Structures are given as C-alpha cells and as structure tokens.
Amino acid sequence: MSLSARRHLLLPAFIALPALAANPDHHEFEATLHAPYQGEGRHGARTFTLDFDYPGARPGTMARWQLTLTRPGGKMVRSWKGRARLDGGPASVRLHWRGRSDARLPDGAYLVRMRAAAGNGDPVEQEWEIALGPLHALRMPAFAPMAAPSLRPPQGAATAAGRLPYTVYYGNLHSQTNHSDGGAELGRCSGAQEPQSAPYGPEDAFAFARNHGLDFLMASEHNHMYDGADGHDPAADPEQVRALYQSGRAAAGAFSAANPGFVALYGMEWGVISNGGHVNVIGAGELLGWERDAGGVLLADTYTPKNDYAALYALMRERGWLGQFNHPDWRGQFHVNGAAFGYTEDGGEAMALCEVLNTSAFSNSTTESETRRPNFEAACNRVLEAGFRVAFSSNQDNHCANWGASYGNRTGILLEAGVAPSAQALQEAIRARRVFATMDKGSQVVLTANGRMMGERFDNAGALHLLVGFANAAGKRAASVMLLEGVPGRNGTVSELARSAETRFTPAPGEHFYYAKVTQEDGNVLWSAPVWVRQLPSVAQLR
Predict the structure, then answer these.
(1) CA 435, CA 393: separation in Å to the nearest integer?
(2) Which of 72, 92, 189, 496 sits between 20 and 30 A of 253, alpha carbons compared?
(3) In the chain, pLDDT over 90 holds for what percent of residues?
(4) Are the C-beta atoms of 441 and 404 separated by less than 8 Å?
C-alpha cells in the first residue's frame, strides 16, 4: 500500500485530544511544521521545527503536540511528543533527526506528520514529505511554459511543439488592511490588530504587492469588523460602516485603472472561526453581515445569518459571486444541516477555491523567508469529497504590511491568451477553475485529461489519459509527481492513483475527480486544479 493511501490509517497512533470548546471569534490556535525536504551530510540529518501561537491564550494554556515520521509503506520510524506553554506568546520546538544513521534507513520519500492542540480546542494537523538519499532526475513530459508577465523566460525548461493558449498571473487572494484587523507596521506586528487601528489601508497594500512583483492582490476584510470592533459595537454608525466597504471597492478600481497590468481586488472574509469558518467572497458589491446598532439597524448592506453557510451560498450563487474556503480545519467547519463541509447545490456553484496553503497570518518577513506555512490539503480533500468543485489556491493571509512578501507562494490564475487582466477576467478564470497553487512563484503546473483542461468537468467513455505539465523559471526540476483521485459526494478519502506525470487507465463508471501534486527538488510543492470526470459505462457493461 502506498504512503499516500495509508495516511488515514495513522490516526490512531496520535494522542487523543479533547473536542472543540468555544473560543473568541478570531483568537485561533496556529501550529505549523517546518520539515526541510533535503537533509545535511551523507546521512541526511535535519531539524524539524514546530511553531505554535495562540493570541489571547488564557494563563497556563499549553500546546500538546506529537510528531511522527513514517517510511514508504507506512511503517513508523520515529515519534516525538511534548508540550509548550503559550500564554507568554509564540513558542517554538526544535527536534533534531539523525537521518539515515538513526536506523540504517533506505533512500526514499518519508512522511513527517504533526498533530497539536491547545486548551480544549480541536487539533491542528499538518504533514510534509521529505527526501532521504540522492535525488534522481524525474522524467517529465515535454511542456512549453505558458507566458507569465511577472517572470523572465524560463531557463532550461522542456519545450514542445505547442504552447497552451493561456497567460499565467500570480498573486495573493487573502490579506487584510486597516479596514479590519491588518495593516500593521512591520516592527510592531506580531498578531491581529485592533480593527481599524493600524496605519496602512488598501491603497498601501495594492502598491506594496505591485512593487513586490505580484500581478494581483485581494484585500479580504473581515465582514463583521467594519464597525471597528472585534466583537460588536452597537454605537457604530451604519452609514459609515457601509461607506467604508464601498470606499475599499472604489480604491481597488482606481488603483487598477492607474496601474495597467496589476489587478486590485477588494472584498470580504465572511464568518468567524468559532463554530464557523472563513469564506472569502470574491466580487461582492455589497457588505454582508448580521450585527446591528443599538436601534436595530443592520451594520451592513445585506443581512446574512451568522454561521448560516447554506444561506450564504444561496446568496452568492444568486449574485454570481465566487467563494474561497480560507484555512479550512480538517476536523470540520462550514456546517450545513449539522454536517461539516456540508454540500449544497448553491455551494457547489459558488465555492470555487480551497486554500491549500498559506503563510503565517502574522509573519513580518519581507524576504520571502517565512517558515511557518500551514498546509490544509487534508481539509481541501474533504471539501472535494463532499462534492464541492474547488481548485487549490495558495495565499498569505497577511495582517502585517508585507502583502505577498512573507514567502514565494502564489495562486496562479490562467487567463486566455490576449485577454487583458482585470477583476472580471480573473473572476471568470476562477469560475472556470483554471487555477493552481504553488509554493514557488517561478513555477507552473497544468493537468489535462484526454486533452481537456484542468478545472473542466466532462463525460468520458473508454480510456482516460492524465498528463501533467510542469515548468520552473529557474530550471528547478520536479523530484516527485503524484496523481490523486476521489469521488465527489462520497465523503470518503482521497487516494493516490499513480506516482508519475502521465498515466492511462479506464475509470470505473461514475463520478471522479483527479488532481496532480508536484514536489520540486527544493521541497516546494504545486497543486493543479482537479478535473471532474463522469465515466460512462461501456457497451459491455450495459449488457
């Protein structure tokens, strides 16, 4: 059994942790694992770093953690566990692993998995593959890199007779400014800001991102902070609340018009963490909310019940807006009818993206060196298995004044060749799910199925040919490729289909989705958008 297919079997090996307790809306526990892909010396030794933070933690709050290392096939090699005190601020744990000398281990891909929780909260899980032993050149199909305005022409990339008729735009679809709890000065930023208290607003964010080489940035402000409070201010002026949201939209439009080639987006991050989950609403011309002033007047343009995701999805579909699941918790958020990641037809149309990776929301790095990079692939797989048709995105959730600069990760959006970048063009590409997630702003990945582009859904009869295209502007190679498969609406487990960039097979009749995951030789990972295939029965099967 493959390493990927056995991952769900490892759960009982971890420490049991209590269920979720009520927490303040935006005081969320953050735990990240940094596992260097390559080791040092002939034994491949390396140091794993576990970082924990819990703003507003009560005195005596402890983070309980466990780390496991498994070899190909799923056999455990090592495990560590411990505690870290959190009420004094962030905590870090460093664990040294001796590599091959630890147990005369063979070369191959190993899985490092962390599970951690604080107080009575749900555990955070994160896992990364690491390489032990020399890297071997991976044979990849010929692929002509697509044009990308923010990149120089790729060096050493494979060439092919044809080039896909798309241009790649790289950016960040998740950040905050002083319209909510972001926009803090770098030297004073270590957590979320008091709403509307920081010095830097949307115009500053757009200018910083453009100067840092991004093609687009979305300021996604918390929808319930337009009253200037993390909780609720009944003395807030409803007209000022609504005007602030519209001023952000106007600022984005003006900045885009003044800076051709860069797209400034403005919208909201709807919802709360406690008993909810954050959804980025893309393209919304109205502020959505549930809070009211002392006289009962809504502090928003349009009423949406708190934590009612079915109602939110219905409104989004009606308005033609798009959504992104932000930093989803694999244990369950976005409840509908009591079910985590509860699917509705409205949600299936409106929710287009799932944030598979971001960087620490409170990073103040401006050199793309942040090592705290939460991974949400397990939760996004649950979203896909629930039936949502989402592509993967990779953002930064910036709260400090370093929009797009904490790491080199990006969301890549494919516009048809010749289409000028604009808010509408990007939204239409997102609607088509022509999106990929990358930890390397110089890389691109594409998955096709019988020549059909990633993001598409189609009927198929007979064999299916999956093909992965990969390129990097600096000539970095792919170290491994995985093709993964699942069944929408099954609410089961995504599994590994193949460890190659090309495969031909005939799926079983019914609904399927497939996506590609590429790991570069430096450990950075890319995720393609899925393709959704309804396999038709063969003539023989119909008899």
Answers:
(1) 7
(2) 189
(3) 79
(4) no
Within a 13 Å sphere around the CA of 430, how many CA atoms are in the beta-carbon half? Answer: 30
Rounded CA separation 540/92 (Å): 60
Is-contact 220 393, C-beta < 8 A?
Answer: no
Phi, psi at residue 244, to the nearest 5°?
-65, -40
Phi, psi of 378 (to 5 degrees): -60, -40
Q: Give me 87's structure tokens.
A: 């009420």
* Residue 473 neighbours by CB under 8 Å, 6+ apart: 145, 148, 151, 152, 153, 154, 155, 157, 442, 443
Taking Cα atoms as reference points, which of 234, 220, 233, 252 lies closest to residue 194?
233
Quote the CA–CA distance of 389 and 529 in Å, as a whole number.
10
Q: Please give the Cα distance from 238 to 67 (Å, whole number).
A: 48
Please give the Cα distance from 516 to 510 (Å, whole number): 20
Q: How far apart are CA 328 and CA 296, in angstroms?
A: 32
Q: What is the rounded CA–CA span in Å between residue 529 and residue 482?
A: 13
Of 386, 398, 357, the C-alpha closest to 181 is 398
Q: Give the count of beta carbons closer than 10 Å to the beta carbon of residue 342.
A: 17
Contact 476, 492 (CB under 8 A): no
Encoded tokens for 311: 């109602």
What are 407-460's pLDDT values in tens digits? 999 999 999 999 999 999 999 999 999 999 999 999 999 999 999 999 999 999
Helix axes 238-258, 202-211, angle to 10 degrees: 30
pTM for the model stands at: 0.92
The pLDDT of residue 422: 98
**Per the structure block, which two tokens stand in for 496?**
């590994």
Q: How far apart are CA 183 and CA 319, in angstroms?
A: 29
Question: Side chain identity at 207, as an amino acid letter?
Answer: A
